[in-house]
Amino acid sequence: MKYEQMLWDKYRKTTLNRKEVSQELSISLSTLERHLNNGTLPIRFKRIGTGPKSRYIFPIKSVSDYLDFVS
Predict the structure, then answer these.
(1) Starting at the edge strand that comes first in sequence, how are the strands of the sheet with 15-16 ordered?
(2) Could you give the angle at which helices 29-38 and 18-25 cross, rounded to 10 degrees?
(3) pTM more than 0.85
(4) Structure confidence by residue, pLDDT tens digits, 21-34
C-alpha cells in the first residue's frame, strides 16, 4: 500500500506508461520491452493497438502491488 500512495503522489494519474514503469522498476526500457514481448512481466497491463506503435498502460495498483511484493 505504501507504493500505491507514493506513485499516486508522484504521477497524479491511475495508469503509467512504459517509460514510467521502467523508471519505477529501475530497469531499462529495452528490458521492459523484452519482458512484454516474452510475456514474463509479472505486472498486469493493457495493450492498446496491434501495430508496432501500440501503447501499453499499467494500472498503478498493479505496479504498486508488485513493488510491495518485491521489497
Answers:
(1) 15-16, 55-59, 46-48
(2) 110
(3) yes
(4) 999 999 999 999 99
